[in-house]
Structure formats: structure tokens, C-alpha cells
Amino acid sequence: MTYIVTESCIKCKYTDCVEVCPVDCFHEGPNFLVIDPDECIDCTLCVPECPVNAIYSEDDLPEDQEQFIALNAELSPLWPVISEMKPAPADAKEWEDVPNKLEHLER
């Protein structure tokens, strides 16, 4: 089992989660974070740190977010590791409750 970053993170990209990760499994894209499934040790530390509840265990993933399992696995080798908190995008608050943001994902 691994943890998965889901759609809620798109365009918000809060990085509170990355500082608590003991194995640096987060990777940063232009407007989204992903978790490397091969690096994640299932410690759960990141889950309560996410202000938009975008991180789920693979076992608890909502059905409408299942495509993010493959997306995290696909993008993590392509994007650089992030291990320190950065400021959120200036418009992050505006995107927090917006549904169906997958079309806004920048690769």
C-alpha cells in the first residue's frame, strides 16, 4: 500500500506535507505534487498535514480518484523531489474547493 496525492492538490499545491516525510517521496510539478509509490513507507505523517485533504491511502482512495494511482506513479520519476515547504501559489485559496480540476494539471 502507498499514499496517493489526489485532485484536490491541483492548483493548490500546499507543501506542508513534504516537510514531515521521512523518506522524501514527494515530487513537485508545476501545479501539483505526487508521491513516489516505490519510496513511500506508508507512515501516514503527510495525511493530517494536507490542508485540502488531498492525500489518501491507496486502500481508502475515493472511487472517483483512482486514476491518481497511475498518475502519481507516472509523474514521480519525471519531477524533482521536494523536501522543504514552499509558499503556496498566490491563488491557491481560490482553487481549494473547485471540483474536477484534472484538466488543469500541468505536466
CATH class: Alpha Beta
Helix-strand string: EEEEHH
Percentage of residues in helical conformation: 10-25%
Strand content: 5-15%
CATH-level-2 architecture: 2-Layer Sandwich
Short description:
This protein is low in regular secondary structure. It contains 2 helices and 4 strands, in the order E-E-E-E-H-H. It has a two-stranded antiparallel ribbon. The chain has a two-stranded antiparallel ribbon with strand order 2-3.
What would your notes on this structure say?
The chain is low in regular secondary structure and 107 residues long. It has a single domain, classed as Alpha-Beta Plaits, CATH 3.30.70.20. The chain has helices at 67-75, 92-95, and strands at residues 3-5, 26-28, 33-35, 55-57. The strands form 2 sheets. A two-stranded antiparallel ribbon has the order 1-4. The model has no long low-confidence stretch (mean pLDDT 97).
Keyword list:
single chain, 107 residues, little secondary structure, Alpha-Beta Plaits, 11% strand, globular
Topology summary:
Blueprint: E1 3-5, E2 26-28, E3 33-35, E4 55-57, H1 67-75, H2 92-95
